[in-house]
């Protein structure tokens, strides 16, 4: 017999995944912004911040979609 998964456990796993995804995308954005800054813009700071912002924005969108899928309640079927 299968053990049912608890709502809190599933929500916790989604939050953990969101935090890991945010750190990964933030770091990738910093890296890409830093490389762009070194290669194209003669060591300006703004490409680093833009890259980090894009990374956090992408992670936010992914987290919002994942958490919305678990937090929405399926509508009950209506009989007419």
TrEMBL record:
GO terms for cellular component: MICOS complex. The keyword Metal-binding does not apply. InterPro entries: Mic10. It is a single-pass membrane protein. The keyword Nucleus does not apply. Keywords: Membrane, Mitochondrion, Mitochondrion inner membrane, Transmembrane, Transmembrane helix. It comes from the Eukaryota. It is found in: Mitochondrion inner membrane. The chain crosses the membrane at residues 23-41. Component of the MICOS complex, a large protein complex of the mitochondrial inner membrane that plays crucial roles in the maintenance of crista junctions, inner membrane architecture, and formation of contact sites to the outer membrane. Belongs to the MICOS complex subunit Mic10 family. Component of the mitochondrial contact site and cristae organizing system (MICOS) complex. This is MICOS complex subunit MIC10. It comes from Panstrongylus lignarius.
